[in-house]
């Protein structure tokens, strides 16, 4: 998803018993013990997440049995809670409780849809950016908006602090509850490696790093931690995970992919969905996940972002579809189509893949949300025709970018229905899917921020550290070379591990003391930035803290002059932070001063080269 202009049958999942974890922090309350387990079984795919899932499933079977014994009573209860089918409010308590509808979303969908005007239905399908609507929430009320989002770098005007996020989202939510039917809006954000837009939140490795861990249990725990931090700020929906299978490293979004191995992407994507969504039946500390970008976004020709992927149906199903089959099995609540095309057909207008394959063949019951301004990339001649094609292809909620005006999109879609370009049935299907997801994520019961969770924001750095530790890949451990004049003779000792005692270490390279480079794109802003952007430990700081008092550390960023004498060198090189098409790179070469620094330091002493890259 691009930035804001300002910055520029449903099974349930798993939940946590009081016996399993602390009531507030869930699984992560015993983070130390869990990390020890992860170290003992680093490649295990039968994860703790899945064990919790199975336990929760047993509970759900019991609930289902009760529901089957007394279906008539439950239906009557839902009917009464919703006001007997009249135009009364959906909400009957201050907590907006419609628990009678929770296990029977079909009745909720039917009753609400039959009671909604066309304007209210179209409003539910709109997802504008927060900086394009009135901050007091009046647009949410007046246009019956189904959701609001923050694009990359779009933060509350009052400040980028967790409590300010909760205040902002609650303002929009109060506005949604002023509408006739009081249907809560759903707020979305790109929490793709932690709650990465919020200052002070825990930042986890990007998916390419998590893929290197090959550890589904760890990824599930990261999903759980992310859900806690996101929901604390009042946000119940994240545009994650990216389950792209990156087939060409020149693609600028490769770091958002777990792997080029379809099976690994499938396993880790499923684990993150479980961690984010849980069972969605407990307190408001889980979030709706979004599997993206459907389909074959990582297979475009020459790795061009938003390009065209070409292949046979067999290729599509073998390489790119399995992560979505798994996501549907895990009950993912939303899926985002790709900007890219498949054999020349833009995905946002590909009815065969969005509706026939995903919704009908795979049985996806959630909703499809378009990517940032993606509908305006379709080839039709007018905005209205582009909108009709996308909705008819299967898109349920329209995420607006910089070009679209909310009022224009609403006007065009209403006119399209009245003019016969879009059927009433297609609108009703979209709205039912959106409402179903809102019920599942608990918005009708817990509309506002769970502020008891605010203390959780930024508390999962030990888990992030473990993820970094498991993500490191050793490419080569060469031999030390003893230098006599200009000649070198190979020694018998490997460079790694480095000694902590009695050693002088030279640290060099522009990525050695730069937390922004370590975090990469999608950190506070869409593109990310170099420098001291977020709290954290740079590699230089870590080296200094790791050596003993008998050792010393010298730092020379660019080594412009004579190489400082030292026993060993550590050169940290990498890329400038980037996101999406800004990262497309046909050469895949180190740039700037990096190559020269590597040559100088490694030509003068035994050295370790650390790559901080996304490609």
Automatic annotation (TrEMBL):
The terms under GO molecular function for this entry are:
beta-glucosidase activity
Family from the record: Belongs to the glycosyl hydrolase 3 family.
Q: Does the keyword Nucleotidyltransferase apply?
A: no
Q: Could you mention a single GO BP entry for this protein?
A: glucan catabolic process
Q: Which Pfam families match?
A: Glyco_hydro_3, Glyco_hydro_3_C
Q: Under what name is this protein listed?
A: beta-glucosidase
| Ranges of Acidic residues composition bias in the record | 9-22
Task: Locate the transmembrane regions by residue number.
Answer: 64-82
- Positions of the Glycoside hydrolase family 3 C-terminal domain: 473-614
Task: Give me the reactions it catalyses.
Answer: Hydrolysis of terminal, non-reducing beta-D-glucosyl residues with release of beta-D-glucose
Q: Cite the source lineage.
A: Eukaryota, Viridiplantae, Streptophyta, Klebsormidiophyceae, Klebsormidiales
Q: What class of enzyme is it?
A: hydrolase
Instruction: Supply the alphabetized keyword list.
Output: Glycosidase, Hydrolase, Membrane, Signal, Transmembrane, Transmembrane helix
Q: Region (Disordered) spans which residues?
A: 1-22
Residue stretches making up the Glycoside hydrolase family 3 N-terminal domain:
118-436
The UniProt record lists the EC number as 3.2.1.21
The record, for InterPro entries, names:
Cellulose_Degrad_GH3 (IPR051915), GH (IPR017853), Glyco_hydro_3_AS (IPR019800), Glyco_hydro_3_C (IPR002772), Glyco_hydro_3_C_sf (IPR036881), Glyco_hydro_3_N (IPR001764), Glyco_hydro_3_N_sf (IPR036962)
Q: Which SUPFAM superfamilies match?
A: (Trans)glycosidases, Beta-D-glucan exohydrolase, C-terminal domain
Q: Which residues form a coiled coil?
A: none
